[in-house]
Amino acid sequence: MLLHESLTHIHSQKKPRLHFGESFTLIVLFRANVSTNAIKTSKYNPFTFLPLNLFEQFQRIANAYFLFLLVLQVIPQISSLSWFTTVVPLVLVLTVTALKDATDDIVSTLENISNPNPFPVLRLRSEKWMDVQVGDIIKLENNQFVTADLLLLSSSEPLNLVYIETAELDGETNLKVRQALTVTGDLGEDIEKLADFNGEVLCEPPNNRLDRFTGTLTYAGQKYPLDNEKILLRGCTLRNTEWCFGLVLFGGPETKLMQNCGKTTFKRTSIDRLMNFLVICIFAFLAFMCIILAIGNYCWELNQGSQFIVFLPRQDDNAAGFSAFLTFWSYVIILNTVVPISLYVSVEIIRLGNSFYIEWDRKMYYARKDTPAEARTTTLNEELGQIKYIFSDKTGTLTQNIMIFNKCSINGKSYGDVYDYMGQRLEINEVKTVDFSFNPLADPRFMFHDHALVEAVKLENPEVHAFFRLLALCHTVMAEEKKEGEIFYQAQSPDEGALVTAARNFGFVFRSRTPDSVSIVEMGQQRSYELLAILDFNNVRKRMSVIVRSPEGKLSLYCKGADTIIYERLHQSCSKLMDVTTEHLNEFAGDGLRTLALAYKDLDEEYFNQWKQRHHEASTEMDDRESKLDQLYEEIEKDLLLLGATAIEDKLQDGVPQTIEQLSKADIKIWVLTGDKQETAENIGYSCNLLREEMTDVFVVSGNSSDDVRQELRSEEVFRNARSSMKLDVVEDSVFLTERTLGKSAKVVTDEVANGEYGLVINGHSLAHALERSTELEFLKTACMCKAVICCRVTPLQKAQVVELVKKYKQAVTLAIGDGANDVSMIKAAHIGVGISGQEGMQAVLSSDYSFAQFRFLERLLLVHGRWSYLRMCKFLRYFFYKNFTFTFVHFWYAFFCGFSAQTVYDEWFITLYNLMYTALPVLGMSLFDQDVNDVWSFQHPQLYVPGQLNLYFSKKAFFKCALHSGYSSMVLFFIPYAAMYDTVRDDGKDVADYQSFALLTQTCLLFAVSIQMSYWTAVNTFFVLGSLAMYFVVTFTMYSNGMFLTLPSAFPFIGTARNSLNQPNIWLTILLTSILCVLPVVTYRFLLIQLCPSINDKVRQAKAAPPPPTRRTRIRRTSSRRSGYAFSHAQGYGDLVTSGRFLRRPAVRSSGFTHVGRTTTGFSPMGRSAGYSPTGRPQTAKVPDVEVTSLQMYRTIKDPAL
Asked: Which intervals hold domain P-type ATPase N-terminal (predicted)?
């Protein structure tokens, strides 16, 4: 591939090499300096694993520290402990961590290998996707996955069309159309012609724009333009197309999908980062203690050392200064237990255990798809308990991407809600669904509950018939009928599919289409309408229209679109009907439904012929074509007559509103980043309780330049109000706080509070300006003051940029959740990435840290597992540091009584087994099983989550308190036993004040004191504490026995110490006294804290007598003046393709197969609003008498002889 003027050339040789295979085709063109299609998703390979993994592990300062200690311990003059006491734990930690990292990387790599099987090639040998290169011609077959960016050359479909599903790219499951150039489409599947294809593609360099492609094809001396409609992107899936050929333009990391994926970064939790800082502080404090003890040794050598030279001669007549130097390093080794290597082993075990809890949780298992929750990483669990910002995709994450025809309003009557005879609205689960058995072509999956609408259809209500006739004619849906009566619709938008399906079930079945006709079945009779024009949908028009001629020769224009747009074009005679329909639209919007207004107009033949001529002239203009066509559309789409409105439910996933409500109560801010239109995203925001009518205001930022966006952000009321009630007293030029971690300064935007609750909606083009360096702070400050933020029409890269912006300036933990490949960059950018394993593919799951099948499981992941994991980890760290600081500080006090000789106060075996055996089980038991409250109370009180966001359970302050507590305990544990044994004799008069007895008493007091200081005395904790104490006494009596001494005297010198000391009452009294003195301040402090300043945890525990009864959620019916703008699709429609004379699909099976029902009724008495019943008795529940009835041309069911 050659680069020239920032463009990419791809050209063929005169004689391309042909390759033949069994299952698909590959023709290899010229290859020069091109990249392969291989993608590297693993972090390691067999050669780089050991050095890279060790490099990562030694980035932990503690691991590097223990390696340094190992070097010191091999120096005999310094070390007073054996070298293996450091080597064995260090090697164990490195090995366990390396195995875990290797396993995670192997599993991730295996799951990321998409299509490892060979695909068919033209060269009689198999090729894998990784071997494809730029310039190859690929043959794809139906349902195959596209794994390179291709230029579509030809296909099996008429006019070289292909149908693709882009779920992996944008999360949308509706099919999209791509079409090859005519000049390449003529190549067909003729291998010889494809082999002789000698063209040159000049295109843009690799980039991440999924919606744009620019290039040209030079072939046979002609130059042809290339755009996005002729490109198949990696991540698409070929649907409903037998085969197609494509030329590889970009492969591997150069594809647009991979350009959007972002880089894989090594994620560490905030506790890990804090630990690195604390370890440095501990090292500094360790050095300080060692310096004090070294100075003490120097002074002792000068004053007292000469008295011991007689029986402790100095080697080589060393001076006091050199002795102090050696003492410094000796105490570095002895006091190293302030950061024991077992800390990191325990942390990994705790994280692994909490990961298993997530995977074993049956309440996060989705039985419908047999999908359990999965913890794809084991290093981020406690971070789940500190989330402050959630960035969520919409389509497929909050919604099911399934549209359901829910309600409608026809000629002033509302259908959809069902009422009993008392005027009370019934829930849909209390009403029998409508029986569509009268319609053999009905979709059996369609459900509707208001029987009155079916009755109106059967009674041949002219307005109702016109309503559904419009839905059956005004669309660009493709019909496919493989078997008699089995019709499948392929819609460019699920909205259109839902509307056409509704018309189908109510007796107006869209059957087939040609470029100039639409065939439908009206109440059992097939009719063919001549399709004269399609006035297609786009983001500016927000409506679409069709002009058709009925079999009777009547010209009509049918229009559907956003209600605000349609209302502007209605005839004045519709004013009263419009008022009634508006009220219905408000009710539909209050239920969170997507609304659409329908209107029609009869056309004069002469006028239409003139308009059609002008339309043809405008469509062939080279300059200003779009604006001229828009003027013609505006001209003919006026004086419309209103038919009614539809209401479609973009079905939310189960439990989404409740989940968002709970997360909001936990003070978690949710931002929705979606590629959808603004109206659609805002509508879903209301549906899922992200936006609420109770909010003070919802602002929309839609500026088209940086200045406009900045001005809109500064003028918003939320920003102005915040200035008067800011939590932190800052001025305009001082909006930062500086957070220093490891000496690195980072600017943090301060939190500001607005007066009231606000929402913010911003469009993609405005977001691009808002993310510019000069505007990003204004945007961030305004957005962070809002309760909810919705970013619409955003690209995958913009999603990641928004996440990075919050990470950069906010001292908060972020979580991103999505389900499609367009969410991968956002998932990788956030502290925590969560993938939804839905129908949009597995790309998001493969890049995530955690995955499950439904959005509602996020509530349990955060409020239960996340909070428990964070709480357990914080308690573990506090307890672990306490017990080890206490253990180490006793050495410090003892140094003043042993001549600063670096002698240990404990038995060497106790030092070895203290963290490994004696205190391991209690701390692990607490860290794996501890629950301050159960899961039911966690849901009942979401405020329990807030302390994690504020780092209240483990912080620098908490660490400092832990160090002070350890200092006090160590003084008690050293000086009380020392005083108790000073000049003390046994009952038989023998002396017990020897070193070994003192060491045994001190270590026993230490073990009792640290073991009983558990947070909660549960059955599990009690078992582990008593078990550890029992184990201590068993091991101690065994090691201090005569047999062990006789076996290896040098290793077991404490012969008989245990049985001689522990049988004395004063020893047990000393143990009791030290335990009480160590525990008493803690109990007193906790008691006063709970009484005087209780935390939310304390309040919940005090109120907890029994699990609260489950609250029954009642449906809240909102009233709203907001109506959703209807979105036909996420791109401009295909109306020009339908009417261009290019037949889109093969002809459908022609057969009526429909028995005309006529006026036959089921004997059902209507109960809906069309029957005149209403709990409020409002006039719209019956036909409005003073509304002028519009003149509707009703078509008689005359069978079309042509069909």
From this structure: 35-87
